[in-house]
Structure formats: structure tokens, C-alpha cells
Amino acid sequence: MARPTRYWLMKSEPDVYSIENLKRDGRTLWTGVRNYQARNYMMGETEIPGGPKKTPAALAAPSMAPGDFFLFYHSNAEPPGCVGLACIEKVGVPDPEQFDKKSEYFEPKATKAKPMWFCVEVSFSSRFERTVSLDEIRGEKPLEKMILLQKGSRLSVQPVEAKEFEHIAKLGKSKIGSK
DNA sequence: GCCAACGTTGGC
DNA sequence: GCCAACGTTGGC
To answer: What is the DSSP letter of A130?
Structure first.
């Protein structure tokens, strides 16, 4: 049975790494996520040798795979909101920052053989013609179930429904594959 | 800059 | 295993 394409939302502070940066770079490693739930999504669907074991609940949850798409969200921005689309290229990549003593994401307990944190490689797909702001998302009935809108939700990597993804992409006047 | 909400750590 | 203290996220 073919796996359906899954859709995600990933947050980044534009002062740190913006959609313009991704457009410039073409591809990047989505490093620095230090949340177990987000990590589990980024580890992908197959077990990683030497990688952390997922709990049964995490195994039952959806995970990323190459070819999935995500909404690029600018957090701590004015206004906060979705600004474009990008594609998951590679999953379960050990986050190199955990091995770098000078990085704020250094993890002394991690080793190359047994990494603790994983990231994904992503590629630029499109920039929206305009920001679909958090305020606007709040006002859309078809988007009311989004994890983004749930009280206290801070998850920086989260699944979204295909319908939600398409709705926001339409509001941003952007399609997969368009510039 | 404030602070609510949440996640993690560590003493017991 | 509990839970208080602490740190972080991210909108406002």
C-alpha cells in the first residue's frame, strides 16, 4: 500500500533562518529542534540503528518521509504566520549541532554511534505572495482544528491535514512547484 | 519585556 | 515515581 504524502508545519524565527534564506540556499538541514515529539516526526518511519527507541505511542503516530511537504511558518515575526512551502528531502539525519562543543545545541551525552537528536534535510518549494498570518488562520473555519491554534501549543514541528495545507497554500496564492 | 503554558531535570 | 523548580517558546 502506497504511503500517502503527509503534510507538516515547521516553525522558524526569521531572524535565525527565514524562507528567504531557504530560497537562497535551496536546501538546508533543519537543525536545533530539541523536543522529543518533533524529533520523533523527523526520525522518519523506519528504525534508525543506534538511534533512540520510540515509544509505542510515537511509533503509532505519523512520521515524515521524503516527498512530504510543509508550511514554512515564521514565529517571533511581525506578523507571525505561514510564508511558503518546502519539501522534506531526507529524514533521520543526526543533527550535527549536538556534536559541536561550540554550538548552543551541543549535547555532551550524544555520540556519533548513538546520536540523541535528529533533523531533516529540506528544500525550497515556493514563497507565498503574502504572509498568511496567525490571525488570519484563526479566522478560517476549515483551519480551526490545527495544532497551531490549540491553547498552549508550542510544537515547532507538527502534522497538518492535507486540506489544511491546501487551504493555507491557496490563501498564500502559492502551489507546489510554483515559484 | 512580560508572562502563560508547557517540557525537562533532579532531589527525594 | 512524584513533583517543585527551572528553562523555553512564542504571542502579545
So the answer is: E
